[in-house]
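Cross-posting from the chemistry board since nobody answered there.

I work mostly on the small-molecule side, so proteins are not my area. We synthesized pyridoxal-5'-phosphate and want a rough idea of how it might sit in this target. Sequence and SMILES are below. Is it possible to get a predicted 3D structure of the two together?
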Amino acid sequence: MKLFDVYPLFDVNIVKGKGCHVWDDKGQEYLDLYGGHAVISIGHAHPHYVEAISKQVASLGFYSNSVINKLQQEVADRLGAMCGYDDYQLFLINSGAEANENALKLASFYNGRTRIVSFAKAFHGRTSLAVEVTNNPKIIAPVNDNGHVTYLPWNDVDAMKAELAKGDVCAVIIEGIQGVGGIQVPAPGFMQAIRQACDENGTVLILDEIQSGYGRSGKFFSHQYDGIRPDMITVAKGIGNGFPMAGVLISPKFTPVYGQLGTTFGGNHLACAAAIAVLDVMKAENLVENAARVGAHLMEELKKFEGIKEVRGRGLMIGLEFENPIKEIRQKLLFEQKVFTGVSGTNVIRLLPPLCLSMAEADEFLNRLHNVLK
Ligand SMILES: Cc1ncc(COP(=O)(O)O)c(C=O)c1O
């Protein structure tokens, strides 16, 4: 059987990882400024993580959501304390798209409405509603194109207020920092204005922190720079450091109803063991603070580079916009300088390294980028 060929691939076979480095099958080492697409939070093959998952799988990898799973409560307690949302409720699933799908469903169950506001260049996943709120017609299949969604311009307070004032908007969904959209940080005041308009119009505010959350921005959640509290927060990627897992953090104003949401694999024992190990390491190694410190250093140095049009981001979620397409720069970074980076559109390089990136590794990246751009 052939693989369904939907991914344009680099001709590299990664077989091993450690911290912020990965190795291919020929033994070549690479510096990982991509984190497997913002997924690796505590670093590749962290010994505590390896031990926790190994122990768990040796005793119980999976049992269903029809029995008590104390590990789920431990994830909820630990996550609530660490991110400042102790009073919220946690629903566990397996992927980012599923997290947004469930958050949107719950919003609609809550207020009975069907219209969603999303934003230009938004990306929220590829399942039915998650893809409909994603502002990319190329990946919205006709069956998903159901007219639920109004896409508004990014950072446009007046357009947002006017749309919500119609009084029939179920939910606003917004990324903490737009990732696929090119590392777009919301302008000061935009998040607060959305929060206020949602309150005034009975609209649910869903913060997609799947890429920008879990410490990546230098705070646990990027929206915490804006001092707001959303009604729901979706998380995935870094929560399991590569183990597929996701969650919806749900405000106390939503009352759970038996059977209304559900999943076979969500919150399974192995996933919870991974998530607990991630939280252990994030705390012990102060990785949120590290992301803030190393990210600030990277941004400051990158702004001195000639040839980069704009440097945007927070913490270790950084976009480098160039005047021209970056394909060749990214190829040279990978094949000549042995550095993995991400991309947004044609002109933006995305940096999404593990949150344990050291100052020395950041400087090493700057040297290698300099070698390409000089
Ligand atoms: C902001 C955001 N939301 C949702 C998703 C979808 O997550 P997943 O691929 O785990 O379904 C992504 C993935 O890149 C994302 O960046």
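Reply from a structural biologist on the board:
Welcome over. Reading the output above for you: The chain has a mean pLDDT of 98. The CA atoms of residues 191 and 323 lie 29 Å apart. Happy to explain the token format if needed.
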